[in-house]
Amino acid sequence: MRISELSRRSGVPVATIKYYLRENLLPKGEAVSATQAEYTEEHLKRLRLVRALAEVAEVPLSRIRAVLEAVDKPDIDLHTLLGVAQYAFTPPTEAPADDPDWERAQRRTAELLAELEWRVGPGSPARGQLTRAVAAMERLGRPPSAQMLRGYAAAAHQAAEWDMDCIDPGASREENVQQAVTMSALMEQALSALRRLAQEDESARRFGCGADGAGAHGEG
Amino acid sequence: MRISELSRRSGVPVATIKYYLRENLLPKGEAVSATQAEYTEEHLKRLRLVRALAEVAEVPLSRIRAVLEAVDKPDIDLHTLLGVAQYAFTPPTEAPADDPDWERAQRRTAELLAELEWRVGPGSPARGQLTRAVAAMERLGRPPSAQMLRGYAAAAHQAAEWDMDCIDPGASREENVQQAVTMSALMEQALSALRRLAQEDESARRFGCGADGAGAHGEG
DNA sequence: TAACTTGGAGAGTAGTACTATCCAATTGAA
DNA sequence: TTCAATTGGATAGTACTACTCTCCAAGTTA
User: Fold this and answer.
1) How far is B32 from chain A (nearest CA, A)?
2) What is the 3 state secondary structure string of chain A?
3) pLDDT for A87-113, tens place per residue?
4) Contact check, Cβ <8 Å, B202/A164
5) In A, residues 165-194, which contact B (CB 8 Å cutoff)?
6) Residue A33's beta-bridge partner residues?
7) Which one, out of A14, B96, B199, B206, has a CA that is 20 to 30 A from the CA of A101?
8) Domain-by-domain residue ranges, chain A?
9) Range B128-145 average pLDDT
């Protein structure tokens, strides 16, 4: 397939595909001649994946590139594959110096993970992300209760188990990468949306005036 | 307090505070003279909130402005207050024309919400967000199973209940706004981080080689 | 009174994600 | 065979976001 067909089938403008090629978000097609290259179904799949992550999950292209590069290394086992994808997805957090809120948050998250006995690497960037969120809440004078964190952790673990149910250890590497990345990014969007909808529902139940739930606040 | 003290106490550069004032992210201080204005503790709180949302939750300033403006309207009840904050937070999604994946996703999300009997407005932007995520997964050939969506929905509702437990109907309006906004944005970050950590744990349990969990993939 | 600070305005900057233009080589229809 | 159209590759330009810097006159402090 030529670049124009890739464009037509994916709905992505040719100029954008060229940009993705330059930025190493898409591997180059096989050069047939000096001014012709052949693209495959794999290119189309990868392109669709990049667009889904960029448009729907709002992942910056730099991080998409990091994930794809991390994942393109051959000869790693499934757990490591999922791990590097995860690690590349999560932006690294640098700890501020001499911040009591940060110190407290870090202590709390470490205690939580120890209590839950989760098998997470000591340098997992999601630790930093969690610490940052908790520290920000401390700074605003609204620290989350230990109970709340434990509850959220239980819900998150439940979600993670369903996620892992979708991974087939026997499937191909490319399959598992697609699955894992889709999982991480798109189900996160879905979870975020569901939580917002659930908040609206719960708010209606507790504080709502009418109890019908149909268009309480103006039909956006 | 003068602008320089606001800067010192918040850690935000004076130039940035001036920018936020121009962009209506922070109300103007009370003008004492032509070249002097007085800022209060409320300004400091608001500034810290803006920074937490921008830096930690990565909410674009335009959406922070929308939330703060929506929430600054007086004389609305608690449920509506939480609702407008939520609505302003969620970017509106426009449906693509003639997309079978989108149609299917929309049908599935509508069915899910109906089955769960959640009281959500028909124009709630989180519906669009959910439809978009599901449609993207359909397009990639990896639609989430109905079971998985139901499971995620249950987890999301559980989280929403804990969220609402933190809202005190008797507290001041400004309190509730802060609480609701902090909740929505920062606990979402925390949930995302916890899900990633839980995925790492679950991946280690199922596919891991060593079973110690200490630094399986290279100490980020 | 002289150095410093302040609020306000405007321009400048860095980064992200495209988008448009140009070019020579190549291809496909007349 | 010829000639418009397409292709890949390179470069430049654009729109947007989030600051950051500079300037200035008015006001405050030593």
Assistant:
1) 28
2) CCHHHHHHHHCCCHHHHHHHHHCCCCCCCEEEECCEEECCHHHHHHHHHHHHHHHHCCCCHHHHHHHHHHHCCCCCCHHHHHHHHHHHHCCCCCCCCCCHHHHHHHHHHHHHHHHHCCCCCCCCHHHHHHHHHHHHHHHCCCCCCHHHHHHHHHHHHHHHHHHHHCCCCCCCHHHHHHHHHHHHHHHHHHHHHHHHHHHHHHHHHHHCCCCCCCCCCCCC
3) 999 999 988 888 999 999 999 999 999
4) yes
5) 165-167, 169, 178-179, 182, 184, 186-194
6) A36
7) B199
8) 99-165
9) 96
0.95 surpassed by complex ipTM: no
pLDDT for res B210: 55
- Cβ distance A152 to B205 less than 8 Å, yes or no, reads no
Helix (H) or strand (E) holding B37: strand B36-38
Q: How distant is C1' of C20 from CA of A44, in Å?
A: 24
From CA A18, how far away is CA A15, in angstroms rounded?
5
Cross-strand bridge partners of residue B33: B36
